[in-house]
Structure formats: C-alpha cells, structure tokens
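Technical note accompanying the year-one report. For the benefit of new consortium partners, we illustrate the data format agreed upon in the data management plan: each record pairs a sequence with a structure-token string. No post-processing was applied to the example shown here.
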Amino acid sequence: MATAVKEIKQTKNRKAVAAKVEHGKKYKLEEALALAKQTKFAKFDESVDIAVRLGIDPAKADQMVRGSVVLPGGTGKQVRILVFAKGEKELEAKTAGAEHVGGDDLVAKIQGGWLEFDVAVATPDMMAAVGKVGKVLGPRGLMPNPKSGTVTFNLADAIKEIRSGKVEFRVDKAGVIHAPIGKASFDAAALLKNANAVIEALVRMKPSTAKGTYVKSITVSTTMGPGIRVDESIAAAFAG
C-alpha cells in the first residue's frame, strides 16, 4: 500500500512539473536551464543532462562523433577512477589519486562481474589486456579510448582532467549525444557554462562529410523531469 501511495505521489509530481513546460516551445538555453531547475522534484540532487540530435549517419565510420570535454563548472559528482597500468605508470596513477590501479588483476576482477568504478583509463601498452573485457566495458561506455583522452601515458594529467569535470560522450544509433552538465543544485550560470562547453565541443567535431543541418535539436532535462526543447540556433554562435 505504501508503495502504491508513493507511486501516485510521484505521478502527480511529474504532471505538476511537466505543466511548467510549454508544449512545442523552443526556449533560449538560459531559460531552459532555469526551468529545468524548477522541474526537479525528487528528494535527491538530480543530474541535469543535455541531449543533442545531430544531422549525421552514425552507421558511417567517418561520421562517428565521439570525444570529451572538461566542464568549467564541474560535474558535481564524485568519480571513481580505474587505471590499467604497470611499472612506473602504476605508481604515477596511484600518486595522482586513482581509486583502482592494476593490470591483469583488474581485468580478472571485471571478468568476474566487478564494476565499481565510473571511468577507466589505460596506458597504450595495456590495451591488449583491456581488450579482453571490451565486451563488458564497451556497452557501458567504460572502454578507454584515445579520442576521449583515456588511452594515454600521461596519466597524471588525464586523472586531473577527470577530477576537474571531464565528461565523455558518444553519438548513439539514433544520432543523439547525451551528456551530463551538472546537478539541479548548481546555479544557472554554472549550468549555462557547462552546456555551452558541450555544444561548442560538438560543433568543433562536425564531420567534414556531414551534410545539411548539423545540430538538429537540443533538449535539457533533470533525471526525473520532462525534456525542455532549446532553440538549436544557438549552435551557430560556435561555428566558424
């Protein structure tokens, strides 16, 4: 009975916050972010996310958009970092503050079902070993990749960037990029800086083979809140 009452209350809350969003309207980015903060109703500090639909064909290798960006306002999240390294690089990773550092031992733990980390970094010489768990890490967005800066010998800088608010993104099969831009508790200015950083990064990554309109739509939302459409013409400010 208590569960049913809770679900009814959550449904009412969702309807109440959804009513704040004008159907069919495209908001200015700063307006959308301010409205997103108003649609938060969960007891926890909801994440604020941005979804950007791109005018590309994800099935074509030369139109794959994947990368990372350091959010100037941070992510508001405690990130657990795992580093695949050996020798001196293992010591470097530990000194830089990575929570988990190792080689074949970590590969074995992951093969056994352990996944208590948020980001994985690896030195290039460890990628053959990491490849053994690629089918586990890949679908979860945890596979180290040179394009996102997580395959590198410069571990100290990589770990520092992640701690500073670095987020990775990759276009999905529908041509959409999803990325976190902070928490609902962030002030609107921090969220705006973070959202602009993501949009600017995506515009810079436009594949040369992509034709027509590149940024087709932009939506922001909190974890539990409704999607809020953003006027995608803002992307033009970062072009050129």
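Partners are asked to follow this layout when depositing records. The first strand starts at residue 47 and ends at 54.
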